[in-house]
Amino acid sequence: MATITYKCPSCGSPLTFDGNSKEMACSSCGSQFEVEALKQAMEIEKESDNFKEGTSWRAKDESFSDEELDRTRTFNCSSCGAQLITDETTVATECAFCGSPSIIPAQFTPGTRPDSVIPFKIGKDKAVELFKNYFKNKKLLPNLFKKNNQIDDIRKLYVPYWLFSCTADADITYSAKKVNTFTRGNYRITQTRHFRVRRAGTVDFKDLPVDASEKTDNKLTESLEPYNVGDALPYVPEVLSGAQASRADVSIEDSKKRADERIAQSMQNEFRSTVLGYESVVPISTKINVPDGTCYPALYPMWLITTKKDDKTYTFAINGQTGQLTCDIPMSIPKAIGWFLGIFAGSSIIITFIMSLILQFR
């Protein structure tokens, strides 16, 4: 299976895509090249390099089970010639032997080639800084995270998404009530008035993202939103250079179920936010229609960091565009209880002090 590796014309080192300058950058000599200019240089080199065209390498024959063959792919690094093995969804990776970024366009199946890519704006150094800063001033963190938070692994990933766009309509009826308490003579009267409130309308949804990878948790990826789709670029293989990427392996139909759920929840929240001035509001009738719309594949940037504590692995994910961070570290329950009791005790002391002052003036 053919791979693409981009090398610096000046020094021969691997090139990666710089999301800020939107050019191919060399970390060794500092050179930067426009994507189109680099393509032309590679074509000229390909035409003039007869030795490479006439050279073939034979990989050692390995035996795989039918199941393994269905799930794995082999390819040769175009930089050093090493034979590498990936799963069936990997479209960008790096050579384990020479470290060169490798792109495997043939891994895209029909319909999964992304229409757009949001490039990285958060570099590796910034991602590490965000990871370290997360632990500062977190009073409810478990004690084992108070020091020695070392990174076990950090990966630069492009995560596949399906982006859904549609115009949905909803008709929701609420039961609401207002409570008014007043005094009349020697009586304290509570008056409760009941209302029926109706909200109906349409909402436009544009590029609603749904995680299209079985490898990543929906809760994790949704916690990284929002992304600014205005920064998205049309897909070209060069954008993936220097990162790992996978194609979508969750079908559009399966993803549509999640899109429908998110659209319905968003509309319910939006409509409910307009029902104001009531003590209680309860929906009693909800009709939401999500018609067929458009859907296309895209790749969004994410840094994935893991750290180990007491033989357990914890995951941190960072939005590669905005720097938004999410993680699966639990809150310390004993510390939370202690914090609550401390506030409660402090409030009780203040209330007791105020009451004593009031009693002194009676």
Structure description:
The strands form three sheets. Strands 6, 7, 8, 9, 10, 11, 12, 13, 14, 15 and 16 form an eleven-stranded mixed β-sheet that branches. The chain is built from seven helices and 16 strands. It has helices at residues 35-48, 50-53, 66-71, 124-134, 218-223, 252-272, 333-360; strands at residues 15-18, 23-26, 32-33, 72-76, 83-87, 90-94, 101-103, 116-117, 153-184, 187-211, 233-234, 244-246, 280-289, 294-309, 312-319, 325-327.
Task: Summarize the structure in short.
With 362 residues, the protein is an alpha+beta fold.
Instruction: Round the Cα radius of gyration to an integer and report it.
Output: 28 Å
The pLDDT mean sits at: 80
β-strand number: 16
Oligomer: single chain
Order of helices and strands: EEEHHHEEEEEHEEHEEHEEEEH
Structural class: alpha+beta
